[in-house]
Amino acid sequence: VRAEALLRHGSEMQLGARGYLLTRQATFLGDYKAAANAVSQDMASLRRQASNDPSETAAIDAIQLKISEWQHRWAEPALEEAEKRKSVAKASEIKEVNQRFSKIQDSLLRLLDENQKAMARRINRSELVMRRALALGVVVSLLFGVMILVLTGIMSRTIARPVRQLIEASRRVSRGDFEPPLPPVAENEFGALAGSFRHMTQT
Which of the 8 DSSP states describes residue 132? Predict the structure, then answer.
């Protein structure tokens, strides 16, 4: 984003200088100065963003050197000369300023392209991490689901077996068999129920 802003502000700086050289209108000179200030801020921001990448920092330094050289060797001397002459600049001066700046724009476009590629790589890495986290979440959820099913099966058997035995025992008692097999005595509700049932059939 900052590289795009730098490209835009650089173009505004060049257009301001060219506009002043062609017309000598002070508004163009103001546009040039405002854009030059914005370019300085953009460069500082880009340098902070690229502090971890030596090759990108070197590219930013090279662009800053080109911009500074363009300003101090061609743009500002041409602007000062036009102001002193009280007339518009010569076509050759404007052409030189434009040609010099087009080289800077090429460098800025390359930097913008590199920034976009780096951003795409970061996005791809983030998406990969998210996909892995999602896959891990699915696997963990499946494991918990299987574990819950197994525990539910074990619990239902633990509960259902004594109930079935008591139901069968009550049927046998209704048919006259007063010594049906009962669930083993346990220290839980089923054990208490089986004990009560046993006591009932023995009396």
Answer: H
List of the chain residues with pLDDT < 50: none
**Residue 27 CB contacts under 8 Å (≥ 6 apart), including other chains:** 19
The pair phi, psi for residue 52, each rounded to 5°, is -90, -5
Do residues 16 and 28 lie in contact, with contact meaning Cβ atoms separated by under 8 Å?
A: yes
Nearest to 47 by CA among 104, 2, 113, 8: 2
Per the listing, tokens 């880009």 go with 46
Q: Which residues contact 157 (CB under 8 A, 6 or more apart)?
A: none
Q: Whole-angstrom Cα distance, residue 109 to residue 49?
A: 17
Q: How far apart, in whole angstroms, are the C-alpha atoms of residue 17 and residue 98?
A: 9
pLDDT in tens, 147-196: 999 999 888 887 888 888 888 888 888 888 888 887 777 777 777 887 88
Residue type, 100: R
Residue 93 CA to residue 115 CA, distance in Å, equals: 33
pTM of the model: 0.54
Count of beta carbons in the 10 Å neighbourhood of residue 18:
21
SS3 content of the chain, % helix, strand, coil (to 5): 85, 0, 15
Nearest Cα neighbor of 18 from 74, 85, 72, 84 is 74
Cα separation, 39 vs 14, whole angstroms:
11
